[in-house]
Structures
1.
Amino acid sequence: MTTTQRIEDYALIGDLQTAALVGRDGSIDWLCLPRFDSAACFAALLGDEENGHWRIAPKGAGPCTRRGYRADTLILESVWETGTGTVKVVDFMPQRDAAPDVVRIVEGVSGSVEMSATLRLRFDYGSIVPWMRRADGCRVAIAGPDSVWLRSEPRVKTWGQQYSTCSSFTVGEGETVAFVLTWHPSHKARPEQIDPLAALEHTAHDWRVWAARCRHEGPYREAVVRSLITLKALTYAPTGGIVAAPTTSLPEEIGGVRNWDYRYCWLRDASLTLSALLTAGYLDEAKAWRDWLLRAVAGDPADLQIMYGLAGERRLPEMEVPWLGGYGGSAPVRIGNEAVSQLQLDVYGEVMDALALARDSGLTTEEHAWSLQLSLLGFLESTWREPDEGLWEVRGPRRHFVHSKVMAWVAADRAVRTLEDYPALHGDAARWRAMRDEVHREVCEKGYDPERNTFTQSYGSRELDAATLLIPRLGFLPPDDPRVIGTVDAVRAELGEDGLVRRYSTAGVAVDGLPGREGTFLACSFWLADALRMTGRVKEARQRFEQLLALRNDVGLLAEEYDVAGRRQLGNFPQAFSHIALVNTAIALSREETAG
């Protein structure tokens, strides 16, 4: 049976090294172990139940009656009200010491409810059926390097059926049955067992202590904290890297081919991520992200990539997985990402902006950071005039993208400002000032359409790009410049759809070289709210922002895009970029309200 759940029907649980998606029907349909970028052992999300899932729900029941996270945690509670009673399933992953665990606790709330559980493990993205055996009161699944142990407290009867492990049990009011699924390398000894109820309390405590550090107290605090928890959940704790999303190949168009692997770390998110973390008071996470960034980009500036693996890995070869039919028939399913080899000149500006922000925010400066920045800027000085694939990783011809040029200006500008503010640092401020001025002149001459009073997507093009909404935020032009106001109005008019914004036009001959279209892009829609606020239209900005808040699912999560016609979320889920933009916009609007 192919999954029929919408993307927004899923909720996230995770342990800061990987994450799982739990559906409203009580089924975990996506989980990669032991890391975000490992092969999935539950891949029903991108295929069907035969590709792996784990469902616990009342016998014969459909979606849960209601669900939500425990306050300020990543602990999911799903409640079913049935004809015989009410039951709750509590799902979470403890922040691990060694082996990753998925804990599912069934709690009887009232009456008596018959429960049904099906565990269908399929390693290597749903393609390998493991060998199952019993050992020490557990069910053990082994195939190649992977081993998974399943146990319950108290022990419930299980049996094998159609290469799955099934169980049936009844819970009454006040009764509890806990299941623990643990992964470990198959060549090692049995992993240490955890106490599921103690783990629940520890996990709740850990998340609440972390959430309490948020120093934002504005009117949107609940949304900000939930987005920050989501961002934390997408952090790979051993290195500080933050994945764009925990999924691959959730489509930008149902049935289309715009399906990409987002389980990696993008430099494009660098400065916006740092801004969100620093402003909300999460200095440790900001430092970890900054340190990951420095390690990842170290080396020859000519070899700078747009994305890296969780620990800074450079090789992310893309391949298709033909045995998975894709979410909603959206094929191909891809693992790896070929865009890693693209030339995107904007990333040099992203890195320079992020490191300047880190320095200005008081993060301890790494001795080699400034030398690395000068090296990156020296390379950009000789390459910024070249065409590239741009921020959106187009798979069409290279162009002179305006946003890429603006980010080259940002790189030079941040270097000049750093030398002005920190005179002890060495560097040729006059040289970078000259580069900054040259880039600025060229963008204003070649990237601006005076007839329509708007910046365009690329030199000589009439197409628009939502990335130009960032021009005032980046400081390229002041918010009250007529060209900025004209660009905001033009993007809103030509790329807007029901108050939201598309990245760029996909009509006619698409700039990205791909067939089909995509939904409105949520991060860009937050950028529109930011640009409206900066250009003095605060009331409209707040309306746009609150419209975006209403698009979150019932547990506060956002994907990458939104389909206005189908009224559903699209793209990989949950999306860090969307939640980063939400945090930044919420805090900026709150400051506006305080100032007013």
2.
Amino acid sequence: MTDASDHADGPAVPPVPAPDDDVEPPTPDYGGGVPEAGEDDRGPDSGPDAERRKEQDEREADDRGYDDLRRVHQLVNNNFYGVVDASGAAFGFGAASSLGLAPGTIEPEETDRVLRFYVPPQPCFDAALGKLHEDGLVVLTGQDRCGRGAGSLALLRKILGKEAKLRSLSPANALSELAASRQLKRGQGFIILDYVGELHVEAVQAYDIGRLSEELRREGSYLVITAGDATSRRLALRDHCVPWQAPDPVDLFEHCRENLPQTGLEPDTEKELLERVGEQRGPADVVAAAVALSRDGAEAALDTLRDRHREQVQEWFRRKPPTEDLLPLAALAFLEGIPERTFEKECAALAAHVCNWEQSGETPVVEADGPKGKPLRGAAADQSRARWRDRAAGLVTTEHRPGPSRDAERSERRLVFTTPRVRELVIEELHDLYGYALWYPLRQWLSELALLGDLDSRTEVARGVALLARYALVEVDENLLKVWSDGITSQRVTAALTLGFMCDDEHLAPQALSIVVSWVDNSGPGRAVTAAMALTGRLGSLYRLQAVNWLLFLTHRGERIAFSARRSLVLLLQTAEQDPDRVLFTLRYVRTVIARAAPGSRERSIALRTAVQLLEAARLQAPEPVTAALLRTVPDSARHLGSLWADVLHSSNRSRAVSALCRTLVQLRDDPAVTDAVGELGEAMRNAMNRRQWTALCHHMSIALKHPDYAIPGAQRLAQVLLGSLRGPAQAESQYSSTSLRSTPPFTFAQGGRNK
């Protein structure tokens, strides 16, 4: 589509102030890539009709996929990474576990909360501090939950002082971007939590690390990276690694007690408590016990340390359950909460996969020295539902829940674990205790569900696979995600949901980002579309800069991929409705891309197509325009929406923009409180338009407001507020008659981001 904003009266868009560094889009290289096979090519035997049918089928399939994503996003809490209450946490775990995980600025008060009970572990703290002083950067390696994240904050605060604002960088490609940056400011502190490596074609080499170290030292800035043990084997970083350890748990516990209100303890109780504390490996567990002791007493602290759910799950597996008990529990780990009738059907399917595997002559699921399971066939008379009382007592219960869009009278009985932690522990035990004989048929069954299951089942499969990724990430990536990401729509949606649920774990979230980025380029159109789907929801909320950046890159690919990328950007805005910062970030980013694109360029045309779909989008929870909801609830959104509307209104997308503006006014017509916001919207549009462009807007609005859908008194009143705010002093240019404009029908009802 050609950008039609280059009128004879000069530039259509005035300079837009550059956003903050956190949201400034880098200059992408859109022209250097080579289209992949199947993306833009047409085979010699494919005629135009066959190609059109194929494109139509793909578009309809992708539509179904995005419909599924919208349904899931309506049910999932998309503000998981909002403001964190860290009042009782330390070491970057517990309630404060996400601090620094999302790229951005870490305020001093946030660091203070996390380090409230901090005890520097020795000798690794002093070793890391010395290396940081010497080289300007250090890599803290070690096991998860050993305090590496809090250690990075403590090291930087030790060097830069308590008032320093720290910057968290993306775990993917951050080193190469920082090494190439010429914007390092003096006295900055950077952290990269759970570094996953570089994903560009040219990996960061020792030379680049050395150059980065020199630049950091020259500017008096410092970088701390946390990573797994494998990082110490990377040649470029090997000389900068310091193995990290958690502090002595008893010392940490006593330190916490000294800084909390005291509680008297009986000698026997204190002895048991200290013994339990000494068994802990995670600093967060020790701090949680100390806080519980101070707040609720010794018994609450012991309950925190005993982990009764783990003891229950381990005891159940110690009994070596027979096949007829093991398989339903394994199935429930991946299908919790679906209707019982559906669950029973899928259990039978899993049993069939296991039977087929055993009949192939391989090792049976039940170990030779364990109890002999009854044959899975011929069990019609078995009271299978009643057996749950004995099969998994204390682990599983039943609830009556309504399904989506159903009232209480349509509720169904569903099997659920007694707590979410039990589900996680069951998957952990299945992974630790059982081998190929169980997991091969289980993977086949999961893949069948991803292919053929309904949306509720596939959503639960995604949750379960995300939990499995905590213990078997490589297996999940290679055997499930890679296959699903290049499959049909149902599989691609399941893969995208899995990556989103992986973000519930702070150590898996960087891995999820790494996987998605690896699919964005040179992995085929199917995986590129899956990547676009995955960059919505939780992943897009956590890594918002990377998500918007990569989605805008994908809008420059083949039409199918570009269409999906635009739909994903719309979903990002829809899911951010209750997160004002993320709303303003997304709008400001698109504004900046439009302002920086050359008039008449392909980049500008693509950015304008994206902008008009954002303006046309409907809310997730209701059919009303999302722009109306933002004007009501998000302060300062009018300024950014006004700029976007001005850009689109004097382009070839004018009629769609007018229709979107009229729908917004109609939706707001009965809300007197929004009058000021509409006035601000008009003021922002005035600031971005000249007299001739304003005249064109008045002309098209006058036509559109005569349409029966818009000719409503309340909407007419708001239109007067909007247009009245545009009336400013006449400019020193000739009058531009509105009748000379080409009249275009303004009624293109393309909602929800669909490009009609």
3.
Amino acid sequence: MDTPNVPSTRYSPVPHHTNETPFPTAFGPHAFGSRAFEPQPSTLTWPSEDWWRCWRSAPVSGRYEGNQASSGPVGSALDLRLDVDPRQGVESPVLNKVSGDLYNTRWVKADGVNQLVKTYVESWIVDAPVVTMTHADAHITGTVRYWKGTHPATTVEITVSWSHGAITGAVATFTAGGVAGQPYACAYRSGCFRDVNLELDYCSSVDVDPKVPIYNSHAHNNRPADLSERTLSIESSYKDAGVAVTIDPVHTVIDDSAAGFASWNVGELHDAMETSFGKFNSGWPAWNLWGVQAGIFDTAGVGGIMFDAAAGFGGAGRGPDRQGFAIFRNHTWFTNLVSNPTTQDQAWAMRHFLYTWVHEAGHAFNFLHAWDKARPDSLSWMNYDWKYDQRNGTDTFWANFRFRFDDDELLHMRHGDRASVIMGGDPWASGGHLESPPGAMTVSGPGSDVELTLTGKDYFDYMEPVALEFRLRNTSDAPVPVDGRLDPRYGNTTVYVQKPDGTVVLHESVVCFYGIPDMVMLSPAAPSGGSDGSDRYSQLVQLAYGTVGFVFDKPGQYLVRAVYSTDGLVQASNTWPLRVGFPVTKEEDRFAPEFFTREVGLTLAFEGSMSPHLSKGLDTLVEAAERFSGEPLGVKAATAVAQSVGDDFFRRKDDKMVKHHSADPERALALTDAGLAKYQQEGAASSNLAYRNLVELRTELHVKADNPAAAKSEVETLAKDLGSRGVNPTVLAQVKELVPSAAVRSTGTPPTPAARSRRSAPRKPAK
């Protein structure tokens, strides 16, 4: 086509740079105004009739799909993603990347009907494509990098064409080892790079408007000064990122009015997720995501939670993962939530409603928190506003946040290896370049006012679940407030483990709790010569099972480090060495494959569950408690079973929450008798926290069994034993309050920070 007014250009696209072919100067947009048909100066010439065919109104960027030319629908297919110029209707940077997924295609006859089946093969990316735009097409070339496997040197050449303003398609040709393959003819599918289906279900107690967040970006005054005014939603937030989220217009209402059911625990949420996803019979992985709006979580400070696992699909480390999350509508964040905010408090609530939904769904794309990726100052959906403010100043997060994921996250979401992005694919964090975890070698400088210490047992029997004491201590002469949530599931503490083979892994919890800080005031450091213990705070943290499965599943020497990051403080712990022993008997060795399963691991991680999806795990723990009674493995297995059977468990059945299991405190107490006797007899300081936690559990069980006298007796014995072991006065004072605190919690009053985050029956608050 001869259109001399539109010269060819060669460029590297950058954000906010419009690359659409312009109107010719002789026939610009003004030609359609009031003077469109008035005589023009003789120096102007009309373009040829082909101009209309060459004009392009749409961006080149987006998703294309097609088959290899020679094979037709059977053979090889390509899902192509071009990210080389600004997309329309979004606020998001151009990454200047090209990527794609390759599939095998074949006809399969099922029930007498032929259907085309696509089988995913692998993914690739071009990191630095060269883009040449002409008036007629876009020409893109680059070197292909495959995410996995070994391949000959490969390049790709892509030509995108358009007609009458619309993109007509793309042709991609791969050259491997100097030999060009048959081209792929791809049709334009979408301006987004991925498509995800999102089902949102609601508990009847919170099936109220607004059901989804709709936020005006200017509603709250604390915002970037140049932020454009627009309406934000879950869909628009992900469309900006390049993901087309389709929310199912029909939602299920889960009746949560069952007597005694007032809050959710992890096991019940996980079980409800399993029940919901039972209707997806196409298998995993799949671009399907489930979210539920529930009332309140057992730990009232948690506003949202992401699940990392589902049952029924094999052993530890096998999918599916990253499919479901929950938002807790009765959290204090949403007290002022209304459909049409008119006040700053209402705007804050709606903004946080949007933030919580987008944040929790983001985990399903394999996103860690910003600080877990060594980017604590990232202005991303995946950071915490309060955590950012602690480092950068009050209200600075929202003053600078532009309602987007950061560039590294966009790269992963749009162009990452499909297996590490898709729900039910690779385990959480596997696509986050964590083979050498960032932050693993963090070293604290001198002068910190808080010390983080790991301590506990240095030897664990084979299969014995590993738990260590995490202790914060004030080293300054002034009081220091700290967030007492030391379990990694809350995001304040990152744990690294060096395994016997020398590899370092990030130990991530299988669940992620998003909630408000639980502040503990550490008294000034005691002068030399003694301390009442008020300058320190400890928790026993369970480390047996995480997103990569059982971390301590091989005999040998391990090294454990942790990094505590909150309130502007980043403090690395000491390195704690521990050894896992070899199986002592053939019985242990033969039992190990039954124990190191996903069902056992999740039951331990959930601190008990009566879900039928995890019944094999519970049965195995019962067997372990019986086989190894009185030994460390048997004691911890029995405790996990007691946590399961000693509490009510509710399940979703026919869209209604029903009691699946009634608390059996007598059985739970009988299961833990041997463990109590062991902790009382051994007298080791390393078991003090485990002893205390078990007595607290048993105290709650005695209260449920209507035997407060037994609870009081066990607490008194615990206080006497710990006193004889030199435990500091502050801890002893807390121990002596265990009986009244258990009784108070049974009426619905939240426990103190030092107490365990467990419900006591009855679970419905007193009226």
